[in-house]
Amino acid sequence: MNYRHHFHAGNFADVMKHVLLLQLLDRLNAKDKPYRYIDTHGGAGKYDLSEAPAQKSGEFLTGIHRLIQLSSAQKKQAPVAIQRYLDLVGQLREQDGKGAYPGSPWFAVQEMREQDKATIFEMQSEVFEYLRDNIRDKRVGLHERDAYEGLLAVIPPKEKRGLVMIDPPYEIERKDFPQLVELLQNAHKKWATGVFAVWYPIKDRAMIERFEKKMFKTGIRRQLICEICVWPDDTPVGLNGCGLLVINPPWQFAEDAKAALQWLLPHLKMTEHGAMTNVRWLVGE
């Protein structure tokens, strides 16, 4: 497998995913009852943008780097979740150096309360070693395991409420993500009340439309689409944008996501025309 997240860490898609993740966790934290955070593809947990992979791609320069460069006044105008996101990135940079950037498991651990638990999967052995070094917390269980079969073994969690973050290496997916659709169908059958957040790349709009049609036909209710495109859909650059499909989004999350993405767009877009954000219900109640 050629995929290594270190090349893409801190890019615009990471910014979008992590801001929305913080908004989801904030909504879960609004209730006293404990929850379980499950990350199907945890990666290394955190990254160093000063190292060769990130420097070679330079993707972080049009992502987190742009936001770090904003003035204090600009940052204070951002939605609360974006301010929190930048604060957490700043904390890790102070701790580990200016090249440090967190992965989803690190963000989640910072937001979890004492009563909450996490289960993190990572199937690549060399990456799992980094994850084990970077995420050390008694509330977290780390599993060197393929999440496409491992997820179904750990849900529903004993906490009965929680969030599954799914961000697979799309090199192993085909066309309209059939493996992903099957996983979501099976997982939802086992845990119909869980919150499932699925990140996906936008490179070919026709493929995304086929994916949406497949998800619509599953019969799963309450599917919310959140997208940001920094290039127009038909730009042949590789990654024009990204989306987060959220099943069972918490109360008011749609409004949170819309405000966050609208604030991010002018800071992350790569062109004056054609860039856009989109938050809409694929399937309602």
Automatic annotation (TrEMBL):
Q: What is its EC number?
A: 2.1.1.266
> Do you know which InterPro entries this protein is assigned to?
RlmJ, SAM-dependent_MTases_sf
Transferase keyword on record: yes
UniProt-listed Pfam families: RsmJ
GO terms (BP aspect): rRNA base methylation
Tell me a Gene Ontology molecular-function term this record carries.
23S rRNA (adenine(2030)-N(6))-methyltransferase activity
- Residues where S-adenosyl-L-methionine binds: 18, 41, 104, 122, 146-147, 167
Function field:
Specifically methylates the adenine in position 2030 of 23S rRNA.
What is the name listed in the Swiss-Prot or TrEMBL entry for this protein?
Answer: Ribosomal RNA large subunit methyltransferase J
What species does this protein belong to? Acinetobacter qingfengensis
Q: What is the lineage of its organism?
A: Bacteria, Pseudomonadati, Pseudomonadota, Gammaproteobacteria, Moraxellales
Q: Which gene encodes it?
A: rlmJ
